[in-house]
Amino acid sequence: MSSMSEGSGSRCIDRQRSSRLSSFGGRLAVLLCLALLPACGEQDLEGARQVGDGSAEAAPASLAGAGAGGGERVVEATSLLGEPLYRVELPGGGREELTVQLAAAEADLAAAPESADALIWVGRRTAYLGRFREAIQVFGRGVERFPDDPRFLRHRGHRYISTRQLEDAVTDLEAAAAMIEGREDEVEPDGIPNERGVPTSSLHSNIWYHLGLAHYLRGEFEQALRAYHECLQALDNDDHQVATRYWTYLTLRRLDRDEEAAGVLSWLDMPRDVHENHSYHQLLRFYRGDLTREELLSDDSAALDRATLGYGIGAWLLAEGDPEAARAQFEQVLESPVWAAFGYIASEAELARMDRAAPDDGADGE
Question: Domain for residue 263, yes or no?
């Protein structure tokens, strides 16, 4: 997930985005609870110094910036365009509820310090509060203490994606994939259950899904396709299938395998029961021609949905041979505050690739 340089226009977008983060309003808590989930369709955030006693180490001063109110703003990551990404502090009730849940997880770990499950939940609950770097440390401790448990590599790999450390993400997730070979799959419990209370992902499916995403973000489309193929075999519920088929479709388009990509859409021929990943479902319908762009982007779409939809449209425009319109779409996505969303990260990756491919306006012509 390595970082790159960025043009002045992108820097302007990032400054505008940073100023909006401090005043986004009460509904940010709801948006981020959704945006930061570890379910296969969407995203999150996470850390700790002494995991057993629940104490958390503050970020180093070098990673903190002055906030709008004069306080310190913690840098959680560097974008793929080279800009700092600040921890988004949840307002009011949302932060309090997630803080209580983290405290409960830490108490469980203190009561059972040898429990891998308890340590995983400390990491996950830390992430939901936007403390990605701390969560990576928690999962790293788990990798050391429970070297045969692929769950820690799975979750740390996900957080490496959140923090744009893509090479490290690939390393962790490939190791996790090797570790699960021949092992029975297991349901992965949701941190924030859906309205039906039914988890829609599993350990195996999440490892392959995030490995495919890490390769995709790095532009390694053949490797991404192999991971998504394994992901499609791992679990058959419609929410998992629609998310994986979305990324599979885009990967095939980037490989100029348009006929195979069209075949992915045949999954829509049967009625589907999607109750989490609606944006991916709508995008697949758009790719098949069932929806127009105007129907896809309604004014009341939440920020996370707009990041997902915006990237999905931009990626389609790129595959259709309109890079300028695609760039405009990706830049619009970066105006969203949900920088942990996969659509946001993918938009950064596309813009970084475009910037690297563009001629240097400052070149002297030699």
Answer: yes
Judged by average pLDDT, the poorest of 51-55, 96-100, 241-245, 251-255 is: 51-55
Q: At a CB cut-off of 8 Å and minimum separation 6, what does 198 contact?
A: none
In the chain, the number of structural domains is 1
Tens of pLDDT, residue by residue over 71-116, are: 688 999 999 999 999 998 777 778 899 999 999 999 999 999 999 9
Question: What's the mean pLDDT in 7-17?
Answer: 37
CA distance 108 to 265: 45
Q: Whole-model pTM?
A: 0.82
pLDDT tens-digit readout, 257-301:
999 999 999 999 999 989 889 999 999 999 999 999 988 887 566
| Cα–Cα separations (whole angstroms), residue 31 to 28, 46, 269 | 5, 16, 31
Residue pair 63/47 in contact (Cβ under 8 Å)? The answer is no
Question: Which range of residues forms the domain containing residue 68?
Answer: 8-357
191 or 127, greater pLDDT:
127
Q: Is residue 223 part of a domain?
A: yes
177 occurs within a structural domain: yes
Distance between CA atoms of residues 266 and 333, nearest Å: 28
User: Can you give the CATH number for the domain in which 43 is found?
Assistant: 1.25.40.10
φ, ψ for residue 49, nearest 5 deg: -85, -60
In a domain, 3, yes or no: no
What are phi and psi for residue 305, nearest 5 degrees? -60, -40
Phi, psi torsion values for 272, nearest 5 degrees? -125, 145
Q: What is the pLDDT of residues 188-215, one digit of tens each?
A: 998 877 778 888 899 999 999 999 999 9
Strand partners, 61: none
Give me the phi and psi of 40, to 5 degrees please: -65, -25
Question: Do residues 194 and 276 lie in contact, with contact meaning Cβ atoms separated by under 8 Å?
Answer: yes
pLDDT at 31: 37
φ and ψ at 14, to 5 degrees? -65, -40
Question: What is the distance between the alpha carbons of residues 77 and 86, in angstroms, rounded to a whole number?
Answer: 7
Element (H, E) at 74: strand 72-78
State CA 218 to chain mean position distance: 14
